[in-house]
Write a structure and sequence with these properties.
Number of strands: 23
Distance between the termini: 43 Å
Largest sheet: 5 strands, mixed, barrel
Strand order of the largest sheet: 1-2-3-5-4
Helix content: 25-40%
Number of helices: 15
Strand content: 15-25%
Structural class: alpha+beta
Radius of gyration: 27 Å
Length: 605
């Protein structure tokens, strides 16, 4: 092997781990060894750069962008790269499994994170820090005397800073070194669990001082300027509908009759105008791109934007002016969009509603919503939402039905229970309006050849479907799964298994055959929604791709209105940006799943 991951460390997080052998032997084993002759024989001479993702089984991939497949990196071709690092790789001549390109990492260009949770291990000859996260890619970090906190005992849980390799040695492939920052022994198990989740998934929690200072420059009052070119929609009865604990209200909706269409509707979806405040490459934008998305834990959130924006200026609070980008759609009684407009606007939300209260009203239970006019508007919105839902079902949108786990807390924020809820009529109402706006905007972007990020969901993996066939046969499902090239056929299978005792488990197996939805620079449609055009437009407070779409729309609006002066300031929308957003979304979802598991374990302990 070119390097050896320290086999002498028998336990990463316990106190009995030992490092055997003399110092020079360990030192030599940690140097990545490879002769120039061997590298020359294997290499194609081609190098690429991209972001590294490491699989728990040891191998990894580097996303090189440009719509090209990821390059496979074997366990012994990774150097000391960690999850999320920007790396330079050399591509091999010979291809690997399923003809995938193979390569090896020759240089770490930029670390995704330099803070690592580890346990100190001390011997007579040296001190090392062993990462708690087994899939870190680092066997251990050497701690020089000047970078140590000597008062800490061996086995202490610590936070370690990964030092710049070039400052530590002149070797081509150096063993990593670290600096002990602080001990974590006084941290509660619950707090430590969340810290591990954040650390493992590279979730950024601290904002740079420049970003916070930038937000503080904005006025806290939003006043309407008639000369701004914004559309004044403050007379419309917009409302927000969200969960009880939501603090960032990025969408408000309003439905009025369409006087030009018998039985038709005018649907207004107003979205927080984040792009007004966050300009390309300003300090907030740079940090937002690195984060890619907000992360939602059962007890708190890690927002993409500083709270001064996410929970205040960009949040569509009731009874205050807020800047928005609004998509107005004219929709027939059959649910077809026959006209639309996009405009920079200003609104004043009438009410902040929660899902439970709206669902109570729509489902015939006693509701806290007493205002007759508000009740009428909600029922009007529900009527349109049902029409849109029926349209999507008829065209084949896949109808999975999964419960969401919810946690119950007392007044002291102590967890008292765990429950499961299914999507209510209120949740479906907002979902249908957001889907309609997203599809309309995506169609607009494609039609006008705008630089945007699209939400792409491709057809299922046929190999996975074929493997699943035997399992479904045992439960009496005879539909050939390998022929599920149309989402309508997926729904037919879901209907067949709906009454079976193991419906939930079979539904999960079916879901796992589906491709992951990702962001790309070209529109390819959305299989699960049976949508020809799809992009994310409705959540720029918590998703960076939505902000990219907003900027493209605003740039075209300014061009049409003659408001844009000088050269275009839109940043380049490329495959690297799309991959970054997709990767950050996957990390956030993983962190959210892990946090739910942690909460359940804590509750049962």
């Amino acid at each position: 092997t070119r390097y050896q991951k320290s086999q002498e460390i028998t336990e990463r997080t316990g106190s009995k781990a030992k490092i055997s052998g003399n110092r020079e032997k360990v030192k030599n084993e940690l140097i990545w060894k490879q002769t120039p002759e061997r590298r020359q024989r294997r290499s194609s001479g081609k190098t690429e750069t991209g972001y590294f993702t490491r699989n728990p089984k040891g191998f990894g991939f580097v996303a090189i962008g440009g719509g090209r497949p990821d390059v496979f990196i074997g366990e012994h071709e990774q150097g000391f790269a960690m999850e999320g690092d920007l790396v330079e790789i050399e591509v091999f001549r010979k291809r690997g499994f399923r003809s995938k390109q193979k390569g090896e990492i020759i240089k770490v260009l930029e670390r995704a994170s330099r803070e690592i949770l580890a346990r100190l291990k001390r011997t007579k000859r040296e001190t090392v820090a062993v990462p708690v996260h087994r899939n870190s890619g680092l066997p251990f970090l050497r701690i020089a005397q000047k970078d140590d906190l000597p008062e800490l005992e061996s086995g202490t849980l610590v936070e370690v800073e990964l030092l710049e390799e070039k400052k530590q040695t002149k070797k081509t492939f150096p063993a990593p070194c670290g600096r002990v920052l602080r001990a974590l022994e006084n941290t509660s198990d619950h707090e430590l669990g969340f810290q591990l989740i954040l650390n493992e998934n590279l979730i950024r929690t601290e904002y740079p001082a420049e970003a916070l200072a930038h937000v503080n420059n904005f006025s806290q009052q939003v006043r309407f300027d008639a000369s701004s070119g914004r559309r004044d929609l403050r007379d419309l009865d917009f409302v927000t509908i969200d969960g009880k604990s939501a603090r960032d209200f990025d969408d408000a909706v309003c439905v009025i009759p369409d006087k030009d269409s018998s039985g038709g509707f005018r649907l207004f979806v107003a979205i927080a105008d984040v792009a007004h405040y966050v300009q390309p490459e300003d300090p907030v934008d740079q940090e937002a791109l690195l984060r890619g998305t907000s992360v939602y834990f059962p007890t708190h959130a890690v927002p993409m934007l500083p709270e001064g924006l996410s929970n205040n200026l960009c949040s569509l609070r009731p009874q205050v002016n807020r800047l928005t980008l609004t998509c107005e759609m004219r929709i027939t009684a059959e649910g077809e969009v026959v006209g639309y407009s996009l405009s920079e606007s200003v609104i004043r939300s009438r009410a902040r509603l929660i899902y439970e209260d709206v669902a109570d009203l729509l489902e015939g239970r006693t509701s806290s919503i007493r205002d007759p006019e508000l009740q009428t508007n909600i029922r009007k919105m529900h009527k349109l939402a049902k029409i849109l839902e029926r349209k999507r079902i008829q065209r084949g949108a896949v109808q999975f039905s999964f419960a969401e786990e919810v946690f119950e807390f007392d007044a002291d924020q102590q967890m008292t229970g765990v429950g499961r809820i299914y999507q209510s009529s209120a949740m479906k109402l907002i979902e249908q309006f957001m889907l309609e706006a997203n599809e309309t905007v995506a169609r607009h972007c494609v039609k006008n050849k705008m630089p945007a990020l699209y939400r792409v969901h491709e057809r299922p993996d046929m190999r996975k479907l074929q493997k699943l066939q035997q399992t479904f046969f045992r439960f009496g499902v005879r539909t050939p799964l390998a022929k599920l090239a149309d989402p309508r056929q997926f729904n037919a299978v879901i209907e067949q298994i709906q009454e079976l005792p193991h419906f939930d488990q079979l539904q999960v197996l079916l879901l796992r055959t589906m491709a992951l939805a990702v962001y790309q620079t070209t529109n390819k449609g959305h299989f699960g929604l049976a949508a020809e055009y799809y992009a994310h437009f409705t959540s720029p407070i918590r998703r960076y791709p939505d902000l990219v779409v907003h900027r493209a729309i605003k740039d075209m609006l300014h061009q049409d209105q003659g408001l844009r002066t000088g050269k275009r300031t839109l940043p380049q929308v490329n495959s690297e940006m799309a991959e970054q957003c997709s990767q950050q979304e996957r990390r956030a979802e993983k962190a959210e799943r892990q946090s739910i598991d942690l909460m359940k374990v804590d509750f049962l302990a």
